């Protein structure tokens, strides 16, 4: 998930530079080509090396994976185009400022804290990814799929060193992060393609039917994993970036777009990264599953490790190791930087460098524990479930405020710091569907859309009540 091209300008704006608290002027707008490269590079990175193999551990079938990803990624693109980009070009405000105008400054502080912590955990999982590559030439024991704690001092030292380097570079500012990502992203995309082609050759694939038969009718999930069906794949891939599209985080990006049609450029990310790269990474794991080592784990009732470093090394040697290190780096670096910005909104007296170091420290500590990476499918689902409903507040106000006679940007209008309508709408929708997920063992991504819709509806109802009683 490296951020490139216009992200430098966008993020610097969020950090306190131009247009942080005002609409982007027409002289600064960008054409669709500016977004194409950004999304293609952003979504072919470290996370993809983990997510692809994890689908196999969930026992997906060929149809579920190939067709499910096609549909799920299409739904994600449509969400970006008709919700995020549509609202972004109308208001041209960052997510943070727009949410503050609706919710109030105190409530946005809570959002920033949650956002920053979740970003740190995501960055930590990518430090884990890079560590699996660095550990290959050291013959380090790789973390198992079911591991939650570090498996030795070598692992801890490697993670600490990688985390320190990433945090230091991120603290130098987004200019450094962005320039590095511009160079690395094409290398990573080529590496994914090469990994997929080499894996196909190692699997003896000579026809479409051979390729289809790699997954066949699917299998039982590995120990500790849940079974993924067609709808698991569709819904999860749709909401893998829920915080960015239905959660409206990418308002901060598309506020620079000349037209809402720039939202279609997200397809480059979805079908390069979340389709080609996921499948290529899954193929690497399919090769590994045929090895005596993997079969030994399975025969003992254990899940074979999902360690991107050894998988890429098996396919591409040293180039594969370098690609995994870079992929983890280009994900963790901007993610730590963004986490720092979220923390800076809470601790404005601290410099950007200091809050970035704080975020990097939290991310590095998280990276020591393999569970964040090994349970990435579940973590990403939780991340979207927590943050997406805040986007519903913006969407429902934008499209329905006039129809239901709701005052837009009510916190700004009434001069309040805490909009109860927003808080209660999020709390009830989150609490209700999280309890349903736990009590009835419902896949969390399945309840993200209902929670999002309920939050938007409750926001309108509570707004009607509170605005009427305060006038």
What does this 3D model show about the protein?
This protein has 471 residues and is mostly helical. The chain has one domain (7-388): Hydantoin permease (Orthogonal Bundle), CATH 1.10.4160. The protein has 21 helices and no strands. It has helices at residues 7-14, 33-42, 46-57, 62-91, 95-103, 105-134, 153-171, 174-202, 208-213, 230-239, 251-254, 266-289, 292-299, 308-316, 318-346, 352-368, 371-374, 376-400, 410-414, 420-439, 448-470. Helix 3 (46-57) crosses helix 6 (105-134), helix 7 runs antiparallel to helix 16 and helix 14 runs antiparallel to helix 15. The longest helix has 30 residues, at 62-91. The protein is globular. Residues 1-17 have low confidence and may be disordered. This is Purine-cytosine permease family protein. Keywords: Membrane, Transmembrane, Transmembrane helix. The chain crosses the membrane at residues 62-83, 111-133, 153-171, 183-203, 228-247, 268-291, 311-332, 353-374, 380-401, 413-436, 442-462.
């Amino acid at each position: 998930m490296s951020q490139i091209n216009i992200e430098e300008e966008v993020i610097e704006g969020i950090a306190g530079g131009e247009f942080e608290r005002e609409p982007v002027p027409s002289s600064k707008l960008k054409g669709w080509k500016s977004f194409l490269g950004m999304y293609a590079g952003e979504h072919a990175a470290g996370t993809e090396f983990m997510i692809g193999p994890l689908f196999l551990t969930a026992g997906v079938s060929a149809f579920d994976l190939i067709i499910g990803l096609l549909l799920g990624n299409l739904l994600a693109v449509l969400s970006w185009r008709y919700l995020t980009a549509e609202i972004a070009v109308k208001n041209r405000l960052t997510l943070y400022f727009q949410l503050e105008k609706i919710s109030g400054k105190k409530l946005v502080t809570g959002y920033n804290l949650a956002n920053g912590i979740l970003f740190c955990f995501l960055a930590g999982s990518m430090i884990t990814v890079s560590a699996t590559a660095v550990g290959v030439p050291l013959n380090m024991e790789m973390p198992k799929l079911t591991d939650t704690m570090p498996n030795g001092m070598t692992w801890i030292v490697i993670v600490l060193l990688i985390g320190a380097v990433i945090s230091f570079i991120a603290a130098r500012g987004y200019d450094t992060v962005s320039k590095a990502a511009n160079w690395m992203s094409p290398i990573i995309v080529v590496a994914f393609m090469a990994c997929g082609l080499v894996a196909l050759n190692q699997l003896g694939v000579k026809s479409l039917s051979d390729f289809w038969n790699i997954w066949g009718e699917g299998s039982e999930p590995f120990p500790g994993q849940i079974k993924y069906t067609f709808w698991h794949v569709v819904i999860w891939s749709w909401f893998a970036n829920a915080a960015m599209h239905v959660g409206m985080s990418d308002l901060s990006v598309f506020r620079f777009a000349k037209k809402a049609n720039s939202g279609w450029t997200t397809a480059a990310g979805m079908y390069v990264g979340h389709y080609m790269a996921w499948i290529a990474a899954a193929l690497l794991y399919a090769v590994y599953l045929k090895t005596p080592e993997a079969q030994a784990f399975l025969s003992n009732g254990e899940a074979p490790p999902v360690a991107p470093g050894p998988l890429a090394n098996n396919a591409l040697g040293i180039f594969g190791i370098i690609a995994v290190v870079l992929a983890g780096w280009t994900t963790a670096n901007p993610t730590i930087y963004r986490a720092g910005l979220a923390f800076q909104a809470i601790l404005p007296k601290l410099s950007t460098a200091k809050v970035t170091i704080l975020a990097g420290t939290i991310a590095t500590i998280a990276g020591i524990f393999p569970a964040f990476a090994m349970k990435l499918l579940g973590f990403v689902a939780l991340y979207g479930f927590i943050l997406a409903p805040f986007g519903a507040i913006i969407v429902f106000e934008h499209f329905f405020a006039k129809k239901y006679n709701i005052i837009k940007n009510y916190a700004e209008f009434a001069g309040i710091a805490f909009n109860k309508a927003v808080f209660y709408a999020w709390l009830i929708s989150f609490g209700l569907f999280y309890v349903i997920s736990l009590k009835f063992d419902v896949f969390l991504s399945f309840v993200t859309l209902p929670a999002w819709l309920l939050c938007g509806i409750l926001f309108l109802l509570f707004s009607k009540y509170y605005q009427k009683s305060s006038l």
